[in-house]
Amino acid sequence: MQYQENGVAGRHGRPVYDDADRPDRRLAQPFVGWTPERMNNSVDVFLKESELEDYADYIRRGAFLAQSNSARNKISLKESEARYLDLENSTNRIDKFKQPWRLYALVGCCSLGAAVQGWDETAVNGAQVFYKEALGLDGKEGLLGLVNGAPYLCCAFACWLNYPMNKWFDRRGVIFITCLISSLTCLGQAFPQRWEHLFVARFLLGFGIGPKSATIPIYAAEAAPANIRGALVMMWQMWTAFGIMCGYIAGVALADVRDGMNKEICGEGSKILLSSRCSLNWRLMLASPMILPLVVVAYVYTLPESPRWLLKKARAGNKKKYEEAFMALCKLRHTKLQAGRDLFLINYLLQGEEEIMQQQKPFSEMFSLGRNRRALTASFILMILQQLCGVNVVAYYSSTILKDHANYSDIDSLIISMGFGIINFLFAIPAIWTIDTFGRRNLLLSTFPFMGIFQIVVVIAFALPDKSSAQHILVILGMYLFGVAYSPGEGPVPFVYSAESMPLYNRDFGMGLVTSVNWLFNWMVSMTWPKMSSAFTVSGAFGWYAAWCFIGWWTILFFVPETKDLTLEDLDQVFGYRTREHMRHGIDQLTWFIGRFIFGRKNLRKPVFLRKPDPDEEFDNRGETYIELHEDRITRPRVHTTLGH
Predict the structure, then answer these.
(1) Residue 182 host element (H or E)
(2) How far apart are CA 125 and CA 626, in angstroms?
């Protein structure tokens, strides 16, 4: 059967399909319209290929459950199987989190890995208060930025190692290797005698951060059941915030080790400043993250491997991996029936992906297909704004800024920075619930204006005379309130949004690209801050990032559609619309908000971008029109957008 591309056969002579049978459409709607005979035949083929006849009952019954939950009324269920299926489909949200302890052990390991990254990032915050003078970086803004940003420069390229490393090693292997690198390089940061030594150690740390940042969310997502996958993937950013907090706490706890803060003893001379008596504090700060990754290294191989990775290896010819994948799922699900269902479904999705990889060009189609290009653009915007909002200026330099430009003491600077880290973690917790209820787009549009306003508070604070009480109050107030606004919105949303917006068949390529861009801009921010704050003053530099918060709000309004509660098929429709339709919807939303909440016009109807109507319906009872757009290779049903209300 042939699929028509806007009425034209597929380009370049590639095989094409009717829309219902396209491999990428089948990834969105597995087993739709299959007869019982076709389902049974498919199960028979899978059992023969996998040599899992011993588990045939679980896999066959599970396959029908994968087709539809209503199949549970037609297949015999044990009491325990029915009970756990009821938990999966419970309307009580907390029931969905009643999962096997082994799954939460895996999530705990991934959370520790995320905390490792956060701690790696902020260990430098307090340490540089002491080492910049000891290593001759005081007054050398360019070199200080180069040293501090070294890991993120490496990450911008190391992220591309994620694909070959996951191919050669398993998910656990990549986590093991990268955490070991993190531990060793953090230890190496404790022994520099010159700034070049510290630069090399920190650059090598990037090999421990980059691939890990791409692999751990994938590992958690592939192990988690679908009904709580979003919440578990979000754990990455939340526990990164926890690690950031740990870095601040370590700075405070280790600041007065030996005589590191004693100005009378350690006030002059590089030899004195580099002695163990005077430099042990900052050396321990830089080395402090080394213990946590060792816990992950010792722990990760006690966990089951990603079932999806095992099935991928099995389909490549290693038949023993089929049983390993089933056993892994048995550890991550309550019953063998659920394991059989997920095994059959994952295998089917992998088969569809393989067909797509042969028939289409996953990498180039990220840019050539409008649907993919718009998803990539939205993901780029969120990843770049995560850095240009200025959060990592506070994460990496707050202690130095407070000491040098607000005239706080060393210990006060560290304590105030620690307060920001605690706020960053605590206010990320509500996003576990709001990200799937309030929505990704709404969280961003609600928080970005406040981020900009609170950055302006910091701008005003640093424009006031030094040492004034008003300056001290406004600096802390602006910094802390910025953290309150950032943590539930732009903190967790970019990684969740990027992971779900791209089609399955090129998601790995898309995530690698947007993660690399995120680290590149991370490096640019950390590298340029010392020079920028010197050239434009601290007040002017914070003004630059405040401006980006307001610019970011408009780009989100026009180019970042909502993805909450949407299936892959729905996302095809959303991103299938041309950019001008998304911009028009953003204007409609803004017009509605102003009319409803500023002018009090309560009768205004809220604009809705996507609703699936009756295909034969032209107008509804409010006179709102249905529009049909045809673009790219996706034939979409007519969908509803309320424009002009």
Answers:
(1) helix 171-188
(2) 54
The rounded distance, in Å, linking the Cα atoms of 204 and 73 is 57
For residues 380-406, give the mean pLDDT: 92
- Find the angle CA(77)-CA(79)-CA(81) to the nearest 5 degrees: 60
Q: Find the CATH number of the domain harbouring 546.
A: 1.20.1250.20
CA gap 307, 631 in Å, rounded: 36
Task: Give the residue from 84, 85, 83 showing the smallest Cα distance to 71.
Answer: 85
Sign of the torsion angle spanned by Cα atoms 334, 337, 340, 341: negative
Q: Quote the pTM value.
A: 0.81
Q: Residue 93 carries which DSSP code?
A: G
Whether 610 maps to a domain, the answer reads yes
The phi-psi region of residue 572 (left if phi > 0; otherwise alpha if psi is between -120 and 50; otherwise beta) is: alpha
At 522-580, the pLDDT tens digits run 999 999 999 999 889 999 999 999 999 999 999 999 999 998 877 666 777 888 889 99
What CA–CA distance (Å, rounded) separates 350 from 360? 15
pLDDT at 435: 80
- Which residue range is the domain that position 43 belongs to? 4-76+306-359
Secondary structure element (H or E) that encloses residue 261, with its range: none
Q: What is the DSSP string of 335-358?
A: SHHHHHHHHHHHHHHHHHHHHHHH
Residue where a domain stops, chosen among 547, 576, 605 = 576
Query: CA–CA separation, 298 vs 465, rounded Å?
Result: 52
- Both tokens of 474, joined, read 């406004």
> Helix 320-332 vs helix 336-359: angle between axes, to the nearest 10 degrees?
130
594 in any annotated domain: yes
pLDDT tops 50 at residue 11: no
The reply to whether 523 and 400 lie within a common domain is yes
What is the pLDDT at residue 21? 44
Which residues have CB under 8 Å from 315's CB, separation 6+?
347, 350, 351, 354
